[in-house]
């Protein structure tokens, strides 16, 4: 056994490496029923290789793991396109109420009227916010909402006996899920260019639409965090060609009670409740990605959809439903958190969310534009995409800057996305952050820019004070170590 | 199994993605799903595979011969009726025809019954909810997904790998990302970009806390209480516990054939503040699927059985 270096040394052993035969964290009660005969031993397993640890071991292990993480509760987290806003803790408490947390998805409707009513009210609120009144809360994440939306588009065209529409037009700036979902939906992906201002190249779009256009997928505001000035022209081009307009709702935090997607000509969208409506990201889920459509498309929604009838609240299957896309009714307890968030602010109060998100992003952009290039030199919406192209010429990459930010207690922005911007650093401060935090971020970004000339090694070696320095990802992929074994 | 990913949305989506993965690996388009599986599994698969030239074939669990061109046999065990399927035989049959075998398990049962890895199964999926996740009216849950290492480049979802930092210290990264949508775009193995990690964490804490002995005890408790309940119900006039079709064992769910419509019996049970079994009269005449777990005390069980007896006598 080696002696540690003192304070700050953390035990890095995995739980399996802490295992001691016979040790237990918890004992189940003895069976209170008469003993029953076990099945034939050929059906039974001999042993199961799981940790044998004490309850304190478990508590310490997971508590220390949580301390090894940056989180929105501990640090400024301007991860662009992810909307890492504060998640009010009272929403977690509400979702944990026994009447919401301990109900079975298949118990009789008469015993879960409150739950179904909650879903119905949230459907109505989301429909009102987006101007798209047909809502299913079933999708379990944004990508599933997106896939559902594309199935709806295909079902719509088939219902019109127009099944030859098999092309999805997607901007070159789009998030990877857009083409991945389109491929799952059997659509051919055609890419439309962005112009030098980050807008959809309308002339290019005109050339691409034809009788095979099923759907145009657009993130609103754009992936560059920009308002799309030609949006009405774009949706008209698509509609005139017989296609549908799909809006990726990833950036909905810029639009709340300012713009309704339905008013822009959008036919289908999804909303990421874990972004815009403040439900926890949880390190990568659970998500919730309700799909929202125009009244004309509501009959195609995935099941279930909550409805109010004379006999009370019921879960229904829409008449031309694309079917079930998962086991039950969606991320119910996430929906409960989002509903609490919306009710706390009031629908009209949501407007100040977006206003403050937009002001914060523009404040950062104004504070850095003399040092960092902008993807597009104009007012942004809720996020700003910087380019470290000038810094790159001086020997420091976007990745280096992101790593150096960690030394200052700031989570890295989204890097190298969108792909069309060189050395992209996508910064989304959200409405949660104070002016002091934004000022600190601006000052740190300017200091890092200074360090390129005064102390470049500080940047290249960053991060310095985290549990690990830069990790060898190449070896991890070349020689994958993917599970615990006694010798690793 | 050799490797697992960091989690899928839920059990049915994990199952659907496993079937699509088998189609990619075998380059075949017909997916065999056992007829004893929960209808939610093929239903979700149908939505996931609608535009992928996939055909879903229903397979009888007793079949001794399958077509030559199946991508996989997908098995739920314990199945929808709670019974343990003959996974070893079915997996061998699949492999003889160049197909893969997929098993969708109840993870709690694996504290007692032999795991799919014992039978050379290729892909294992599960609903993670029984491992300490609140029911919460259906979600969020987490889908568990594991496979043979040979198949990993066709696996969907996030995969975590161990590596070292510049000072040689152990660290962890998302790895094999060239399978994923943010790099591969329309050629990705899946569009998924979450791992439902907060729920995955609940499962990890639950399994760590129960540990080796606790997971065995948990499965045994479920088994004992369910079998006790089944024996008590079977003694009631008019109620029979359906003998296992496959002739093997059942875990903690079983089918009760009722003297009348399960809907009417459940309504009468509800008046006594008991939520009865699942009405499966669409699959079994007057059938009710009963599930008993470690959370049900003997007093609760006896109360339920007594109520069933009284309601049955009044029918």
What report would you give on this structure?
Chain A is of the alpha/beta class. Chain A folds into three domains: 15-33 and 40-67, no CATH class; 103-345, Aspartate Aminotransferase, domain 2 (3-Layer(aba) Sandwich); 352-466, Aspartate Aminotransferase, domain 1. Helices cover 34% and strands 11% of the residues of chain A. Chain A is built from 16 helices and 13 strands. Chain A has a seven-stranded mixed sheet with strand order 1-7-6-5-4-2-3, with helices on both faces. The longest helix of chain A has 20 residues, at 435-454. Chain B has 315 residues and is an alpha/beta fold. Chain B has two domains: 3-195, Aspartate Aminotransferase, domain 2 (3-Layer(aba) Sandwich); 212-314, Alpha-Beta Complex (Aspartate Aminotransferase, domain 1). Chain B has seven helices and 13 strands. Chain B has helices spanning 11-26, 40-49, 87-96, 181-184, 197-234, 262-271, 298-314; strands at 3-4, 30-34, 55-59, 70-76, 100-105, 123-127, 143-147, 160-164, 170-174, 240-241, 253-257, 278-279, 287-291. In chain B, the strands form three sheets. A seven-stranded mixed sheet of chain B has the order 1-7-6-5-4-2-3. In chain B, β2 (30-34), α2 and β3 form a beta-alpha-beta unit. In chain B, α1 (11-26) packs across α2. The interface between A and B is large, with 108 and 110 residues.
């Amino acid at each position: 056994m080696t002696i540690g270096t003192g304070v700050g040394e953390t035990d890095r052993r995995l739980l399996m490496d802490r295992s001691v035969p016979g040790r237990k964290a918890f004992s189940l009660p003895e069976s209170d029923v008469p003993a029953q005969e076990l099945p034939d031993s050929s059906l039974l397993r001999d042993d199961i290789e799981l940790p044998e640890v004490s309850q304190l071991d478990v508590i310490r292990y997971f508590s220390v793991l949580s301390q090894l993480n940056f989180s929105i509760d501990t640090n400024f987290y301007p991860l662009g396109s992810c909307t890492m806003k504060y998640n009010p803790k009272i929403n977690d408490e509400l979702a944990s109420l026994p009447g919401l947390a301990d109900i079975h998805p298949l118990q009789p409707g008469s015993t879960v009227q409150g739950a179904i009513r909650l879903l119905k009210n949230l459907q109505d609120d989301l429909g009102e916010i987006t101007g798209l009144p047909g809502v299913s809360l079933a999708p379990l994440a944004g990508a599933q909402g997106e896939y559902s939306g594309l199935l709806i588009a295909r079902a719509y065209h088939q219902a019109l006996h127009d099944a030859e529409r098999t092309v999805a037009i997607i901007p070159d700036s789009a998030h990877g899920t857009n083409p991945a979902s389109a491929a799952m939906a059997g659509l051919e992906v055609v890419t439309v260019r962005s112009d030098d201002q980050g807008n959809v190249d309308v002339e290019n779009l005109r050339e691409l639409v034809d009788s095979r256009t099923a759907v145009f997928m657009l993130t609103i505001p754009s992936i560059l965090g920009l308002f799309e000035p030609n949006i009405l022209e774009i949706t008209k081009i698509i509609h005139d060609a017989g296609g549908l307009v799909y809006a990726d709702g990833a950036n909905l935090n810029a639009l709340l009670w300012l713009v309704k997607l339905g008013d822009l000509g959008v036919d289908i969208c999804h909303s990421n409740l874990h972004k815009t409506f403040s439900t926890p990201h949880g390190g990568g889920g659970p998500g919730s990605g309700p799909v929202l459509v125009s009244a004309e498309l509501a009959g195609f929604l995935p099941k279930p959809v909550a409805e109010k009838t004379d006999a009370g609240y019921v879960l229904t299957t829409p008449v031309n439903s694309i079917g079930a896309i998962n086991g039950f009714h969606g991320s119910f307890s996430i929906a409960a958190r989002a509903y609490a968030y919306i009710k706390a602010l009031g629908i009209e109060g949501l407007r100040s969310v977006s206003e403050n998100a937009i002001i914060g992003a523009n404040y950062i952009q104004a504070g850095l534009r003399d040092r960092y290039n902008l993807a597009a030199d104009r007012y942004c919406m809720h996020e700003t995409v910087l380019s470290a192209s000038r810094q790159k010429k001086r020997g420091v990459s976007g990745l280096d800057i992101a790593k150096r930010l960690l030394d200052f207690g700031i989570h890295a922005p989204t890097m190298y996305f969108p792909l069309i911007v060189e050395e992209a650093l996508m910064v989304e401060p959200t409405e949660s952050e104070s002016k002091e935090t934004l000022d600190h971020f601006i000052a740190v970004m300017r200091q890092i820019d200074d360090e390129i000339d005064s102390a470049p090694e500080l940047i290249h070696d960053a991060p310095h004070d985290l549990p690990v320095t830069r990790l060898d990802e190449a070896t991890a992929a070349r020689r994958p170590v993917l599970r615990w074994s006694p010798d690793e | 199994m050799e490797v697992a990913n960091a989690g899928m949305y839920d059990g049915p989506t994990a199952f659907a993605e496993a079937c699509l993965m088998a189609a990619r690996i075998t380059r075949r388009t017909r997916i065999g799903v056992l007829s004893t599986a929960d209808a939610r599994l093929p239903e979700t698969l149908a939505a996931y595979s609608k535009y992928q030239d996939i055909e879903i074939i229903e397979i009888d669990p007793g079949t001794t011969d399958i077509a030559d061109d199946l991508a996989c046999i997908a098995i739920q065990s314990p199945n929808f009726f709670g019974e343990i399927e003959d996974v070893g035989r079915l997996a061998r049959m699949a492999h003889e025809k160049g197909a893969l075998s997929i098993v969708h398990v109840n993870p709690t049962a694996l504290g007692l019954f032999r795991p799919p890895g014992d039978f050379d199964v290729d892909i294992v999926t599960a609903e993670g909810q029984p491992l300490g996740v609140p029911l919460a009216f259906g979600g969020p849950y987490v889908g568990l997904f594991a496979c043979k290492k040979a198949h990993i480049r066709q696996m969907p979802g996030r995969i975590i790998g161990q590596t070292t930092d510049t000072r040689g210290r152990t660290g962890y990264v998302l790895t094999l990302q060239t399978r994923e949508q943010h790099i591969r775009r329309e050629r990705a193995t899946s569009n998924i970009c979450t791992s439902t990690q907060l729920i995955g964490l609940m499962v990890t804490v639950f399994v760590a806390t129960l540990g080796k002995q606790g997971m065995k005890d948990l499965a045994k408790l479920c088994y004992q209480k369910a079998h006790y309940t089944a024996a008590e119900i079977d003694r009631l006039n008019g109620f029979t516990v359906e003998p296992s079709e496959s002739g093997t064992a059942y875990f903690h769910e079983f089918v009760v054939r009722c003297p009348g419509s399960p809907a009417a019996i459940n309504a009468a049970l509800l008046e006594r503040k008991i939520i009865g079994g699942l009405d499966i009269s669409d699959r079994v005449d007057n059938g009710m699927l009963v599930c008993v777990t470690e959370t049900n005390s003997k007093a609760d069980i006896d109360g339920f059985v007594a109520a069933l007896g009284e309601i049955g006598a009044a029918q």
